[in-house]
Amino acid sequence: MTSPYQPLDTLKPLADDIWIVDGPEISFYGLPFSTRMTVIRLSDGGMMLHSPTKLVPALRAGIEKLGPIRHLVSPNWIHYAYIGEWQDAVPGTLAWAAPGVRERARKHGVAVRFDRDLSDGKPGPWAGDVAQMLVRGSTVHREFVFFHKASKTLILTDLIENFEADKLPFFMGLVARIAGVAHPDGKMPPDMWLTFRRHRAQLRACVERMIAWQPARIVVAHGRCIERDCERELRRAFRGALAN
Question: Which of 98, 137, 178, 212 is deepest in the core (most CB within 10 A)?
């Protein structure tokens, strides 16, 4: 599988000390999903890899030119597929687990060892550079969001999907439009939203905190990133949670 976000496996700078990498598509419930990693150089010089994409030797070498790879972050329970590859290739890294990811990896027979747990109450070693928050309210979905302070970049994973339908195979583009997760109206997938509806106030509080961070851009794992008017876009994408 390919991806509409060429070139793949290449560091693409967003601002000082932060990059994205678009990886090959991955099959999820039989549908092709684009993959995206965010790479951050921390103040101590170490590199933090958020939702690592497939390991490619040239990509690894490019990251290591920027600094030693120290942290591999699974931001939610379904983004972990390639962490084991990076662990094997780069000894000494710490793999960080979101709630539920260990159980899912075991269920699907994915070989990965998590060393630390992401926590709302105990910030990671990147706290001086990157804020983090567990988005609460879902009966199923557990996702940490991150905010790179220096560049004012909000990093989401699956809470907003923003597929560019015209760049997708016809059937996938049709699915994205029907589900309401197609640019320019990308938002939380409807099946995920159903898991938040009973505790919408908790989700609302988390969205309001994201807005308070005043992001200059928003990275999403699937589809087009948001590069302007971020407060307006967050209010649009999470309008169900913010409605009175």
Answer: 98
